[in-house]
RNA sequence: GUGAAAGUAGCUCAAGUGGUUAGAGCACCAGGUUGUGGUCCUGGGGGUUGAGGGUUCGAGUCCCUUCUUUCACCCCA
């Protein structure tokens, strides 16, 4: 082996930057999460879908412009097509819906748990490969749809122990901010830039923010107007600022949203935050983010209304709202709060068969074989060892019942069944036990 | 992509200003109690100190390069 090859062999032992290996222990956690995401989605009436894990590069540049390419893992296939690993699922969703739009009953309530890749520099809570729970409702412009999306997220979070004391839902409306900016004499074409500046408000000190805004070409009167918007503490204060008919209508929508969330029983999570504008250009109305209240981490989830996206992909004009929740920040947070459950990476056996003597091993396999054939999780010690060791192994595997095969099994067809939790033990006839193992009461 | 800090066993951490063969706990494996358990006792495998090069009689320790992680930017779908 050449020196170069030795080097290569060593470097391939390391998983690529920003990726993770899922050993059984981590895989069990991941599956726990997926199952909860899936169950919650289905319970709320969403249907599961998925698309390809890579798409035409254009699919992503249409929406986000060419700058996005540097954040993508892109490549060319042998036919010269430009492709990219999916950095998110929303473009795929828009494409899938644009193709079949007229055939789908509305509202379309879909969910997915895609594995996605972004070529960014990894940090805490942000990797190059991750999973993201996506929830979308397409074809409804009613606030109820926004409320439903948010409710699924909160219902899930509540289930994993993240109540309103620990986390909050930050809500704003891009539309209303836009109308307020217009009232302040700031043209619509500069709103994108304003959103970007407003996004910094919570991260910077007052002086730093002023300086930053000034550098971005915001004049003093504009800065005052922007700050007035950013300082609005709640919806009722927003009312006094909203002068135009449009902004009043949008404010009414936000009130409606709050009412729906109250009705669903998750109103306590709601916080009005004027600085929440989201980075993406395509959001058109209500936007929201979910944060832990200590706010030391990135957003747990984020989303909003994007009424123009489907038509951008060549589909009919269809209103839509949705959010994404990544696995990384969520699991980090659960770990930090001690709320991540211990999930065994194997299925604990219902029955664990133990022999008193290696010569009885054939009977162990016979019983295990029969139980497994009947659909029970049954197991035995991997080595012929003293009974003490076998019991130890059974306990380690979290088995419920131990079945002891001894001389009496050979001579009288008797086995002993022991409840490993209570310690209770009883002798039974083998055939009778095997006929209906589920009727065992101990 | 730019800037900064860190990296010692699977995990958590030791190892004065460079100085014998890099240690401990947990975990893992094997023995011990001869028909009954996560306890206990004994032993064991494990590391080219992230990798590569340099300075030196001598490098875990100092210098350079690189990889990974973390933090701040960029961006955040």
Q: What would the keywords be for this entry?
A:
17 helices; five-stranded mixed beta sheet; disordered N terminus; 2 domains; Rossmann fold; nine-stranded mixed beta sheet; alpha+beta
Helix content: 40-55%
Structural class: alpha+beta
- Residue ranges: pLDDT <50 for 5 or more in a row? 1-10
Overall radius of gyration: 29 Å
Span from first to last CA? 62 Å
The total beta strand count reads 17
CATH class descriptor of the largest domain: Alpha Beta
- Coarse morphology: elongated
Overall tally of domains: 2
CATH architecture verdict of the largest domain: 2-Layer Sandwich
Q: Give the strand content.
A: 15-25%
Mean pLDDT: 91
> Helical element count?
17
Structural features, described:
This protein is of the alpha+beta class. The chain has two domains: 318 residues, Bira Bifunctional Protein, Domain 2 (BirA Bifunctional Protein, domain 2); 89 residues, 3-Layer(aba) Sandwich (Rossmann fold), CATH 3.40.50. Helices cover 41% and strands 19% of the residues. Strands 1, 5, 6, 7, 8, 9, 10, 11 and 12 form a nine-stranded mixed beta sheet that branches. A hairpin with a 5-residue loop joins strand 16 and strand 17. The radius of gyration is 29 Å and the shape is elongated. The protein binds one RNA strand of 77 nucleotides through helix 1, helix 3 and helix 15.
Short description:
The protein is of the alpha+beta class and 442 residues long. The protein has 17 helices and 17 strands. The strands form three sheets. Strands 1, 5, 6, 7, 8, 9, 10, 11 and 12 form a nine-stranded mixed beta sheet that branches.
């Amino acid at each position: 082996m050449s020196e170069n090859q030795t080097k290569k062999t060593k470097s391939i032992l390391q998983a690529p930057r920003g990726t993770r290996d899922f050993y059984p222990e981590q895989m069990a956690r991941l599956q726990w999460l997926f199952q909860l995401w899936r169950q919650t989605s289905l319970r709320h009436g969403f249907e599961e879908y998925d698309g390809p894990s890579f798409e035409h590069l254009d699919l992503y540049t249409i929406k986000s412009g060419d700058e996005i390419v540097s954040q993508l893992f892109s490549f060319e296939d042998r036919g010269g097509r430009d492709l990219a690993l999916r950095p998110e699922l929303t473009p795929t969703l828009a494409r899938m819906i644009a193709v079949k739009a007229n055939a789908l009953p509305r509202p379309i309530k879909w969910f997915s748990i895609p594995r996605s890749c972004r070529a960014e520099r990894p940090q805490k809570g942000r990797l190059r490969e991750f999973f993201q729970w996506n929830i979308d409702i397409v074809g409804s412009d009613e606030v109820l749809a926004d409320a439903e999306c948010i409710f699924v997220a909160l219902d899930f979070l509540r289930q994993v122990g993240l109540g309103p004391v620990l986390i909050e839902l930050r809500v704003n409306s891009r539309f209303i901010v836009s109308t307020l900016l217009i009232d302040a004499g700031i043209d619509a074409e500069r709103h994108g830039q304003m959103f970007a500046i407003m996004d910094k408000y919570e991260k910077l000190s007052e002086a730093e923010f002023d300086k930053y805004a000034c550098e971005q070409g915001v004049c003093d009167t504009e800065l005052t107007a922007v700050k007035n918007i950013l300082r609005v503490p709640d919806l009722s204060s927003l009312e006094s600022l909203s002068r135009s008919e449009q902004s009043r209508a949008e404010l009414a929508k936000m009130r409606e949203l709050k009412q729906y969330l109250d009705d669903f029983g998750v109103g306590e999570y709601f916080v009005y935050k004027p600085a929440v504008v989201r980075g993406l250009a395509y959001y058109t109305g209500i936007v929201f983010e979910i944060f832990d209240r200590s706010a030391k981490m990135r957003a747990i989830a984020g989303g909003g209304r994007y009424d123009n996206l489907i038509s951008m992909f060549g589909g009919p004009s269809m209103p839509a709202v949705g959010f994404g929740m990544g696995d990384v920040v969520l699991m980090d947070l659960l770990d930090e709060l001690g709320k991540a459950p211990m999930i065994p990476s194997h299925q604990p056996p219902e029955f664990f068969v133990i022999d008193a003597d290696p010569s009885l091993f054939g009977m162990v396999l016979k019983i295990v074989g029969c139980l497994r054939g009947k659909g029970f999780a049954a197991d035995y010690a991997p080595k012929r060892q003293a009974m003490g060791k076998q019991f130890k192994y059974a306990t380690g595997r979290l088995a419920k019942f131990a079945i002891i095969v001894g001389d009496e099994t050979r001579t009288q067809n008797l086995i002993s069944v022991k409840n490993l939790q209570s310690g209770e033990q009883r002798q039974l006839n083998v055939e009778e036990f095997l006929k209906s193992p589920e009727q065992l009461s101990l």
